[in-house]
Amino acid sequence: MPIVDDDPLDQKRKKIFSVAPLPRDGPLHGYLYVVLEGATQDDIAQMLQRDYLKPLGLWVIAGGALVAILGGLLTFAALTRRMKRLSIALDAFQRNDFASPQGLLPLPANPAGDEIDRLTAAFNQMASRLTAHMQALQQTDQLRQEFLANVSHDLRTPLAALRGYLETLLLKEGTLSPQEQHNYLEIATKQSERLTIMVSKLFELAKLNTKQVTLNRESFQLGDLVEDVVQKFQLSAEKRSLELYTDVPENDPFVFADIGLIERVLENLIENAMRYTPPGGKIGLIMTVEPQHVMLQVTDTGSGIVGEDLPHVFDRFYRGGRTQDQDSGNAGLGLAIVKSILSLHGTDVTVTSSKGRGTTFSFKLPTTSAMA
Q1: Crossing angle (nearest 10°) for helices 39-95 and 115-171
Q2: Domain identity same for 326 and 223
Q3: If you count Cβ atoms within 10 Å of the first and of the last residue's Cβ in the chain, which end, N or C, has fewer?
């Protein structure tokens, strides 16, 4: 119970019904079916169901839309918060002239996260590099100003002396003895030579730094070049009471380099050693043969280099406190030229020194057999 059977109007549906035989008494002629849930009741039920489901659906739709809007707002706020923080950091970094790391953001927990995380990591990397470059530029600019001031002073001294003696010759023309005129002209000539050397070194360093020098490599015996260069400085060393010696092994192999530029390296290193070695000192050029290289050391018993100056002796804009005579005309270019020349050869120059115990400069050149 209840009894359910096909709906006479729609056999796809089942209806509750009641049935009775006809007639009640006598022979059976049929049955009387009474459907207890007819079409009218269906219409009423469907109408009631529609009236109930319609507002329920509207509430469901409204609730879903509200949840979607809130979720979108939260997602948008999360995205824009990180973007806003990145924008604020960029503005702060810009206000600091890209010279301060104050605009750096905390690194994301997952560097390989979404696009904003990768953008934050890229910004931090860019800011760090820009800060380092700005600091390096500021330091270089400061050294350049000091260098220009030193060079200006070194150029001004011989120029002033040269002009003074020439003006004296003009003012006292006809009143000076031949010997006095000769002395004045000799001093003026020395000052002009001093200027020529300084200007030549400036141009040489400028060419090396702008990569305008082309190496002309060839095979030659470094020992022979060392002996020739030392011979050039032998007379000057004797005048200063300095002992200039060499230590060249018998099995002197051929090296592969630009002989003209290596000669400039040796000249600058010897000049530097003579400048800071007192009378009675020694300057040596010592060669050591290695399997694929020849190492050359230029050592002296001079004043040495203080510890704070040692890392900067090859800086082109640096002039330390090693100089004994600030008016010697040394603009601090010789060692910078040495480093630039050897860098072109793919090798480096090192220095070991201590105050009052002399200095040793060392570099290596490849042998011809190693380049084959």
Answers
A1: 20
A2: yes
A3: N
Which tens digits make up the pLDDT trace of 77-93? 776 777 777 777 777 77
Query: What is the DSSP track for 8-40?
Result: SS-TTSEEEEEEEEESSSSS--EEEEEESS-HH
Closest to 106 (Cα-Cα) out of 91, 85, 92:
85
The reported pLDDT for the residue numbered 364 is 94
| Residue found by looking up tokens 């009741």 in the block | 41
Sorted by sequence, the CB contacts under 8 Å of residue 97 that are 6+ apart come out as 134
Q: Which of 33, 35, 1 is CA-nearest to residue 15?
A: 35
Do 184 and 245 share a structural domain?
no
Domain interval for residue 253: 218-371
Answer whether residue 50 shows pLDDT above 50: yes
Cα 97 from Cα 101, distance rounded (Å): 10
- CATH at residue 300: 3.30.565.10
Q: What is the count of structural domains for the chain?
A: 3
Q: Which of the pair, 212 or 21, is modelled with greater confidence?
A: 21
pTM beyond 0.90: no
Q: Which amino acid is at 329?
A: G
CA distance 3 to 15: 8
Residues 365, 224: one domain?
yes
Tell whether 249 and 343 lie within a shared domain.
Answer: yes
